[in-house]
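tool_log.txt
---
The assistant was asked to compare two proteins side by side. It first ran the structure predictor on the initial sequence, then on the second. Raw inputs and outputs are pasted verbatim so the downstream comparison step can read them without reformatting.
(1)
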Amino acid sequence: MSFRSMEEFWPFYMNQHSKPATRRWHFAGTLASILCLIYSVCFNWWFLFLVPLFGYGLAWYSHFFVEGNFPASFDHPFLSPLCDLKMFGLMLTGQMDREIKRLGKRPILQVF
């Protein structure tokens, strides 16, 4: 499945993150990655290797063991991290529930 823009990809991405626990794991992974990035820049460059380990590790765990699907980052390596940051921002500002309601329960094909 190909997408021409982030706006087209966003509903598919949200469908892949339909369970609240999956979104929470992503939030934790993104937050840990951001904190490791800041720490590595300020204090110790060796922590830079933890950035993708936390970010992708926690997110992929949630896809395989919570959501039961295939991570979108495998097929969409550029759009997926952008949408992850968007989801992180919506969760951080308390707007995620409103976004889920806005998107509704659209049927979107599961791609493996």
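(2)
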Amino acid sequence: MTFIFIFKFIALVSLATLVVSQEPNCARNYTVMPGDVCNSICATHNVSTFQLAHVNADKIDAACDNLAVGEALCLGIIGQDCNITTVVNLGDTCDTIAINAGINTTLLLQNNPNINSSTCANIIAGEVLCTADQVFVM
């Protein structure tokens, strides 16, 4: 009986810690699971790689190699949550991604400020880009 009480107490404390640590203006939340990497989280939950890194800059390093199992991540801020995304494939260019998404390249670059706007040479296969038809990045 004591074991069950202790287990429930620990579970409640863990849940309270998780809830407190989440972004107050967060539109969507996600808890890191074993085996997660940033691009897989992004692709599965329709969040751009930039957005995930930007919103969680206090938790995720530039290489995104420090995810902790059980850590709460915010997937987007209310009013700035792009959930229309495209996963970059080998050989994609900014122009082809924009055309396939039905948007112009300028809008693609506005929503993905991590892309080199003059050459678009820094996109990589597996990266997830916001391809919404409105500006979400402020």
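---
observation on (2): The beta strands are 26-31, 72-77, 85-87, 128-130. The chain has five helices and four strands.
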